[in-house]
Amino acid sequence: MLLAADVHGAFDGLARLISRGETVVILGDLLNFVDYRTGEGIATEVFGREFAEAAMQFRRRGDFAASREMWREYSRGREDDVRAMVGAEIQSQYRQMHAALEGGTGFVIHGNVDVPSLLQSHLPDGFRYVNGEVVETDGVRLGLIGGGSTTGLNAAGEIGEDEMEGLLDALGPVDVLGTHVPPAIDPLRRDVITGRLEGGSVAIADYLRRHQPAAHFFGDIHQPQASSWRIGRTRCTNVGYFRATNRAVRYG
Known about the structure:
Blueprint: E1 2-4, H1 11-18, E2 23-27, H2 42-47, H3 49-61, H4 64-75, H5 79-101, E3 105-109, H6 116-121, E4 127-129, E5 133-137, E6 140-145, E7 148-149, E8 158-159, H7 161-171, E9 176-179, H8 186-189, E10 190-191, E11 196-197, H9 202-211, E12 215-218, E13 228-231, E14 234-238, H10 242-245, E15 249-250
Parallel strand pairs: 1-2, 2-3, 3-4, 6-9, 7-8, 9-12, 12-14
Antiparallel strand pairs: 1-15, 5-6, 10-11, 13-14
Helix pairs in contact: 1-5, 3-4, 7-9
């Protein structure tokens, strides 16, 4: 079983991963809204480079309110057109995802930038969208929950702590847990480029302490201070920023 996260539009690399013929688990963030290193992404296509550069600055500061206000300002008076352009870009990227995954087998959860309904509808045969379920693959009971921590952007892919806690409680004990967000352990959720503590889930950390699965895999933090940690017997691993590395992590 190979696990990857934060694909963010790197569909050529994803196709190469699928060609290896193994079960692949993708832990969210298939869409590339804006690459905070290069400015590439949906935001640039719709609003232009100036918007993307400002968005990168706001993101580095964690100023989601400023990002939301800038979006409103750039959209003012043409909201329907912007909505249509963004929708077309999302559909285009998910079609590219479909082509990259075709012929493979595995499971996909959503991340904070994903649109869960569209992600699910664009998956090819052989891949299954999962959220709040236990699946068995390669003899492993794998619990999968999608969603990113809330930011105030009200993105379709965000999940609150109460909802996360409820989904975790419904899972019960598993061999391996897969989520998009890390547990609320500071070195796992601190981005060394921004120097900020990003999203992390207290509910996930509590679940790991209570149930002690063998492993927990996640993504979301692109440049973490620590990529692995132990909570009791559970080995927690950030599987990496696939858009930058084109690498996956093997389990089993």
